[in-house]
Specification:
The structure holds 3 protein chains of 3 kinds.
Chain A (H helix, E strand, L loop, with lengths): L3 H21 L3 H23 L7 H31 L13
Chain B lengths: L2 H22 L3 H21 L3 H26 L14 H20 L16 H11 L2 H29 L1
Helix pairs in contact in B: 1-2, 2-3
Chain C lengths: L8 H24 L8 H23 L5 E10 L2 E9 L1 H24 L6 H20 L3 H19 L6 H32 L4 H6 L7 H15 L8 H4 L5 H10 L1 H11 L6 H24 L3 H21 L3 H36 L19 H15 L5 H17 L6 H27 L16 H13 L15 H6 L10 H18 L8 H4 L4 H73 L6 H20 L1
Antiparallel strand pairs in C: 1-2
The chains are: A mainly alpha, B mainly alpha, C mainly alpha.
């Protein structure tokens, strides 16, 4: 019904916005938000390409599993953020530089 | 401009705008809320793309689950002083530049592809949920099982990682 | 060339060397003897000199009227030119040997009494010995170079002796003046030596005397050598040092400035008179006449005993030089011989007056200038011995008959008369001057004697004056006897006794009216002196020797000192300034290089290090542990990859 490019443009926009959020925000939770956004953008792409042959609902299956993985990752990520916050009393990723050379 | 088109573009605009405004909003909590908006708009777009199951799954899990625990995380990691958590920016210039370059590249790639116009709309099969279940158990049994395993591991891991906090406290 | 005479050559040589070297030994011993034994020094020195006199008498007897004795040794050589040291001993130098050693011995003997109690007595006797040695060196040397070397040594020892009492400023400045004026003369001497060498290629006197033709520049050479004589023998214009040299002890004046050193010039003239051309001899006699006139006139107005004697020495030296100029070195040597004895006697007599009066002053605690004749008078009663000695030597000086001075002056006058010839020319003035000078000589000698010994006592009435000790009287007696005519010859009126004919066998002037004329002339002068005895002669012109000193001071001394100050200024300002500026430049350059090294070189090294550090830190910043930067760089790499895909 709608042109495929529109879905893809939106997906690209969301992906790059998520990228920007990851790189520029000084809060670990915001980084997680950015990651979620990027995952959603890839979901959108998958759903968009599903429209080519809606009978075989491959795209939907794929995006289902993406959502599952996203859930796992968000849970573990949050647990880590909480742990790190407990250890270093900060949620700013810039201040976690013990791996600095 | 039909009503569907309008709704579609409206939902796209909402998603885009809310995503973009996350960059500018300093408050983390507002950012989470904006993300909810964006996800809901995306769900709407999924519906218009004949992917109802995903749309509902999105609302249920993403907006209802993940964002809620994200808000939990926000609350737990903010210093309890009554002030809401403000974030600053780091690497703003380079980040925005990289992002815009990436966007540009993606747009370029997308626009240089020729997509066949859709074949006249073949609607999704009427019993899509049933097709879903059947597919999960037959074609996609392996990813299904692995996904279940992954969920189990993630659950245990998150529990372990987060629970040591308590033991340390006490 | 070894000795070529047929008699015992080796003994004579040995004794000659003994006579020459004993004074040197005395010098060495006196210098090196320690303080404790310094009382021994006078006796030791005198004894050595006595031995030296004995040896020289033997040598004299052997060499007189025989072949000359020549000893030569190789000294050094430059390219093909060989320089030798050697001894030429002919009758002339044998005579001088006697004079020098004899008077030196008498002065040594006298000094043992005169210089008793002096603080630097060792230095005194050492320098006396050294002086004798140097003088003998001049007398015996056989080449001009050696004569020049010993000439300088004599000048040096006279400097040391005149300035013996170095605490007195006048003494040291007088010594310096003597030395410097001698040096001025020696410059001419050296130039003369150079001219002689250039033309004859030899310094040896025998070789020079054998060349008969006149070489080029001979007049100039002889006049240059005469410059040295002018300095040493106090001829005009280099005569101002001799009166000032009276600051030294009186025995020194007797030895140096009466008998020996000033005679060295005349001796040199006699030694090498064959070098002098007739034109040079004319100039010589003119200068001699000026000198003798100045000396005589100045002696007339002096009132210091020693200064009178000094000016009289100048005058008599002028007479000797006139004799050389008149072509008769024999007459000059005769007068030198006699003058040595009677002038030394006069000086020693004056010294005994001074010594006795000083002793008396110490006892009576009075102080007045004993050398001023205006303070003295009537001393014949208190110092009879000295009075007689003074009369003997003074009569010889004045040229009274029956004394040696008469004979030698006669010889000179005869020589000049012979030189003058018959026609009237400017040469007559020379003869006239000689006569005038002999007149004035009598005048001042008489005046001196009268004011010191005759008349009434002036300042010395209350002083207990005694005769000087025996050691001082013996030399006076010997010298007084030496002033009698017997020394020269049997006949008191004929000067060509054994001495004169020994010097030159050929020339014998006919017995002429000259002795009679001069005898009458002297008696006339004696009468005039007696008549004028009370008259005071005042003349500041003559007193200051025609202001020669002042002229020299303004002309030469001041300009030399200014020149010295100018060169000092130049040296300090410019040369030192130049060196300082090079030093400053060096320091500035050093600072600059330091800055350069620090800033630029070190800076570039540091800059390279800083560059490496910066690049390192930049590349290190990729791994600063910030997650978001890692993500950024990953995206960056992907973008690059994608762009590469496009391109």
């Amino acid at each position: 019904m709608f042109q495929l490019q529109h879905f893809l443009y939106l997906g690209a926009l969301l992906f790059s916005v998520g990228l920007i959020i990851i790189i520029t925000k000084r809060n670990a939770i915001m980084v997680l938000l950015g990651i979620e956004l990027m995952l959603n953008a890839s979901n959108l792409n998958l759903v968009a390409f599903n429209q080519i042959n809606p009978a075989t609902i491959d795209g939907q299956f794929f995006s289902l599993f993406v959502i599952i993985v996203a859930v796992c990752e968000a849970a573990v990520g949050l647990a880590l953020v909480l742990r790190v916050y407990h250890e270093h009393k900060t949620s700013v990723p810039d201040e976690l530089h013990e791996l600095k050379e | 401009m039909t009503v569907l088109n309008f709704i579609f573009y409206f939902l796209e605009a909402v998603a885009a705008l809310s995503a973009i405004s996350i960059i500018f909003i300093r408050n983390v909590f507002y950012g989470a809320l904006l993300l909810i908006t964006c996800l809901l708009a995306l769900a709407g777009i999924y519906v218009l793309a004949f992917a109802e199951f995903i749309a509902v799954t999105q609302i249920l899990i993403y907006a209802g689950g993940i964002l809620v625990i994200i808000i939990f995380g926000i609350m737990l990691t903010s210093k309890i002083s009554g002030k809401s958590l403000m974030v600053e920016h780091t690497n703003l210039f380079s980040g925005v530049l990289a992002g815009l370059t990436f966007l540009g590249l993606l747009l370029y790639f997308i626009s240089s592809q020729k997509f066949n116009p859709f074949s006249t709309a073949k609607p999704t099969p009427e019993k899509s949920i049933q097709a879903f279940g059947t597919g999960l158990m037959t074609d996609f049994i392996l990813p299904f099982e692995i996904a279940g395993l992954l969920l189990l591991v993630a659950l245990i891991g998150a529990a372990v990682v987060a629970s040591s906090i308590k033991s340390k406290n006490s | 060339m070894e000795g070529i005479q047929p008699y015992q050559s080796s003994t004579v040589e040995l004794l000659l060397l003994i006579a020459l070297l004993l004074p040197l030994l005395s010098f060495i011993i006196s210098f090196s003897i320690s303080e404790r034994y310094s009382w021994m020094v006078p006796f030791l020195a005198t004894l050595l000199l006595l031995t030296s006199v004995a040896s020289s008498v033997y040598v004299f007897i052997s060499v007189w009227k025989h072949e000359p004795l020549v000893i030569q040794l190789q000294w050094f050589s430059i390219a093909d030119f060989k320089f030798t040291v050697g001894i030429l001993m002919n009758s002339l130098s044998a005579l001088m040997l006697i004079v020098v050693t004899g008077i030196s011995f008498l002065v040594h003997l006298y000094s043992t009494g005169y210089m008793v109690g002096d603080a630097s007595i060792r230095r005194y006797f050492a320098m006396l010995g050294f002086f004798t040695f140097s003088m003998l060196g001049i007398v015996l040397a056989d080449n001009l170079l050696m004569i020049f070397i010993f000439w300088e040594l004599v000048g040096f020892s006279s400097y040391m002796l005149i300035g013996h009492w170095k605490e007195k400023v006048e003494a040291s400045s007088a010594a310096t003046k003597a030395f410097l004026i001698n040096r001025v003369g020696d410059v001419g001497f050296l130039i003369g030596l150079m001219i002689v060498w250039t033309n004859q290629n030899s310094f040896n006197i025998l070789e020079l005397s054998s060349s008969t033709e006149i070489f080029s520049w001979q007049t100039a050479a002889s006049l240059c050598i005469f410059c040295g004589v002018m300095g040493k023998s106090a001829q005009f214009p280099l005569l101002t040092w001799l009166p000032d040299a009276m600051e030294g002890p009186t025995p020194v004046s007797a030895l140096i400035h009466a008998a020996t050193m000033v005679a060295a010039g005349v001796f040199l003239l006699a030694r090498i008179h064959f070098v002098f051309t007739l034109d040079a001899l004319d100039i010589v006699i003119i200068i001699g006449s000026i000198t003798t006139l100045i000396g005589a006139l100045a002696a007339l107005v002096q009132h210091d005993i020693k200064k009178i004697l000094a000016y009289s020495t100048i005058s008599q030296l002028g007479l000797m030089v006139m004799a050389i100029g008149a072509g008769s070195p024999e007459a000059a040597m005769l007068h030198l011989f006699t003058h040595a004895f009677f002038k030394a006697g006069l000086f020693l007599a004056a010294g005994s007056i001074i010594h006795s009066l000083h002793e008396a002053q110490h006892k009576a605690h009075e102080h007045f200038d004993v050398q001023d004749v205006r303070n003295l008078g009537g001393l014949r009663k208190k110092l009879p011995f000295t009075f007689i000695a003074f009369i003997l030597c003074g009569s010889a000086l004045a040229g009274l008959p029956f004394f040696t001075g008469f004979l030698s002056k006669d010889a000179i006058l005869t020589a000049i008369q012979h030189w003058v010839g018959g026609e009237f020319s400017w040469k007559w003035f020379m003869l006239a001057i000689a006569f005038i000078v002999s007149f004035i000589t009598v005048l001042y000698t008489f005046r001196m004697m009268w004011s010191v010994f005759m008349g009434e006592e002036k300042r010395t009435t209350t002083l207990p004056v005694e005769e000087p000790p025996l050691v001082m009287r013996i030399p006076l007696a010997i010298l007084g006897f030496a002033s009698l005519w017997l020394v020269v010859g049997i006949n008191p009126f004929d000067y060509s006794g054994w001495l004169y004919s020994g010097l030159h066998a050929g020339k014998y002037f006919q017995l002429s009216l000259m002795p009679l004329i001069s005898a009458l002339w002297v008696v006339l002068a004696l009468v005039a002196g007696y008549l004028l005895r009370k008259k005071e002669i005042q003349s500041s012109l003559l007193f200051n020797t025609f202001y020669l000193d002042r002229i020299y001071n303004t002309l030469f001394v001041k300009s030399t000192l200014q020149f010295a100050a100018l060169t000092n200024y130049i040296d300090k300002k410019w040369i030192d300034g130049f060196i300082h500026s090079t030093v400053y430049t060096q320091v500035i350059l050093a600072h600059f290089t330091n800055w350069f090294d620090r800033i630029i070189i070190d800076g570039s090294v540091n800059g390279v290090a800083g560059l490496a550090k910066g690049v390192g830190s930049i590349t290190r910043s990729f791994q600063n542990g910030k997650i978001q930067l890692y993500i950024f760089w990953a995206i960056f790499a992907i973008i690059i990859f994608l762009i590469w895909l496009i391109i």
